[in-house]
Specification:
Blueprint: E1 3-7, H1 10-19, E2 24-25, E3 32-37, E4 42-46, E5 50-54, H2 58-63, E6 86-92, E7 101-108, H3 113-119, H4 129-142, E8 144-150, H5 152-158, H6 164-183, E9 190-193, H7 198-204, E10 216-218, H8 226-250, H9 260-273, H10 287-292
Helix pairs in contact: 4-8
Length: 297
């Protein structure tokens, strides 16, 4: 688990609190202003101005406020969203206990734009699963893309060595490596829907043999770039296909997300198939596992 401690101004701490307003507010420790838990990080802000970030998402949250982590870049800070051709990637499944992690990078040419606009392509989180199942095959047929699916068994095997952010970084990079091989070369504009600062992203790839360096990182990119939105939909489509196949294979009603209903589903699944099989359907390090079996798992 990563831990970062930085000093922040009152204004920064207020901005951080607003950024985290949807997180779980925990009991405030002594001398702290607040402690908030997100899906991958616990953030504690102290009255002294010190802020502690603990968890897999520590770098992502801390880097946004840590001046020491910033680095100069020759990439445009706000590349025009209508530059084509462009490539974009997004991931799905990182917030779901059950099911795989999918990452897709897509290549969009200028001539693809009217077609995609007519389909109403947008971030997959804003599209119903039913519509995703309709759009997925259409986009797969029209666009050049690279799709990676990391199943639960493999995820649980590598998670002790690589945290969630590292795994996402490696999957995005590999998706771009595959896409570059398909295309021969990548366009000048390649976007990742940002989940970590660039410096940390490349640090997670320090031992990877082939790294794509010409990446632009931008938050909410799925709402700004058609290539990222298309990648988001194909990734979601692949996730749904794998999720549906898992439900059919086990004849079990798996639940999406990571809420209390997932805890109930975990107990029901283990009762039917045993604890060992859970590693093949779920992400074991999620808090849901301990909530479902606080005394035994």
């Amino acid at each position: 688990m990563s831990t970062r401690t930085i000093t922040m101004s009152d204004a920064q701490i207020k901005a951080l609190a607003k950024q985290l307003e949807k997180g779980e507010k925990r009991k405030t420790p002594p001398y702290a202003q607040f402690q908030i838990k997100t899906s991958d990080c616990i953030i504690t802000a102290y009255t002294s101005g010190k802020v502690v970030f603990q968890g897999e998402g520590a770098d992502f949250y801390a880097d946004a406020y840590d001046k020491k982590s910033s680095q100069p870049s020759d990439q445009p800070q706000n590349p025009h969203t209508e530059w084509y051709p462009q490539c974009g990637s997004d991931e799905v499944g990182t917030g779901d206990y059950f099911g795989p992690i999918t990452v897709c990078a897509t290549y969009v040419k200028k001539e693809d734009v009217p077609f995609l606009r007519e389909l109403g392509i947008q971030d997959s989180k804003a599209v119903t699963d039913e519509r995703i199942r309709e759009l997925g095959p259409i986009l797969c047929e029209r666009l050049t893309y690279s799709l990676l699916v990391l199943d639960n068994a493999k995820y649980n095997a590598i998670h002790p060595q690589y945290n969630m952010v590292a795994i996402k970084s490696r999957l995005h990079n590999q998706a771009y490596v595959h896409l570059r091989r398909k295309l021969g070369s990548l366009p000048s504009l390649c976007i990742i829907d940002q989940f970590v600062q660039a410096k940390s992203y490349y640090r997670y790839l320090h031992d990877v043999e082939e790294v794509v360096h010409t990446i632009h990182f931008e938050t909410k990119a799925e709402n700004k770039y058609l290539s990222v939105a298309a990648g988001s939909i194909i990734a979601r489509y692949a996730f749904l296909q794998a999720f549906d196949a898992m439900c059919q294979h086990y004849e079990f009603p798996f639940v999406k997300g990571a809420g209390s209903k997932v805890d109930q589903a975990i107990r029901a699944f283990v009762k039917q198939y045993g604890k060992a099989e859970l590693a093949n359907v779920g992400k074991l390090h999620f808090a849901n596992t301990k909530k479902a079996f606080p005394d035994s798992l």
